[in-house]
Specification:
Elements lengths: L2 H25 L4 H14 L1 H23 L7 E6 L2 E6 H13 L4 E11 L2 E10 L5 H19 L6 E9 L9
Helix pairs in contact: 1-3, 4-5
């Protein structure tokens, strides 16, 4: 949810809360007529402020109606056609698979990934945290090969472009003294 949606929902939640408290007040014997008379007198005496409040309330109501009928945002997916039908795989699911595959390689201590679709092809940018004393070119080859094979085997994605950056060399773990 974006910030505007959250603000509108917050304001409407407050309005519903006020209405709920008013209904409970009436149920226990509160006389709302006196309160409404005081508010009515203030609104008549302050027409400009009343008009601004009315415009803001109208705008919020229109925005709420638009938000209710707005279609949800499409999640970026990869579409695979099979004999049985269409399969949509979210990029988030593919990212999870990529992290799992790359994390299986010895020497990889941390993985950050970014996926993008370019002209129908999957582009993968990996930023790795590697163990010290690791042969980085060899590790990069292993990671790229493993990720490509894993994606081909699990979701049938071939031809993905994998860019790799060594983001950090992990700190050497301290030896324990027994």
């Amino acid at each position: 949810m974006n910030l505007v949606t959250r603000i509108v929902l917050f304001i409407f939640s407050l309005l519903v809360l006020v209405l709920a408290i008013g209904a409970l007040g009436v149920a226990v014997g509160w006389d709302p007529e006196l309160t409404f008379l005081a508010v009515n007198q203030w609104l008549v005496a302050s027409r400009v402020e009343a008009g601004l409040i009315g415009l803001i309330a109208l705008g919020l109501a229109i925005l709420a109606v638009v938000l209710v009928f707005r279609k949800s945002e499409d999640v970026p997916t990869i579409i695979k056609e099979t004999n049985l039908g269409t399969i949509r795989i979210s990029l988030q699911a593919v990212e999870t698979l990529i992290k799992r595959a790359a994390g299986e390689i010895d020497g990889v201590r941390g993985i950050h990934s970014k996926l993008r679709m370019v002209d129908g092809e999957l582009g993968i940018d990996l930023a790795l945290e590697v163990a010290p004393d690791t042969n980085i070119p060899e590790l990069a080859d292993k990671v790229q090969t493993r990720v490509k094979e894993y994606l081909a085997h699990t979701v049938g994605i071939t031809g993905a472009t994998i860019g790799l950056t060594v983001r950090e060399i992990a700190a050497q773990p301290k030896a324990r003294v027994k």
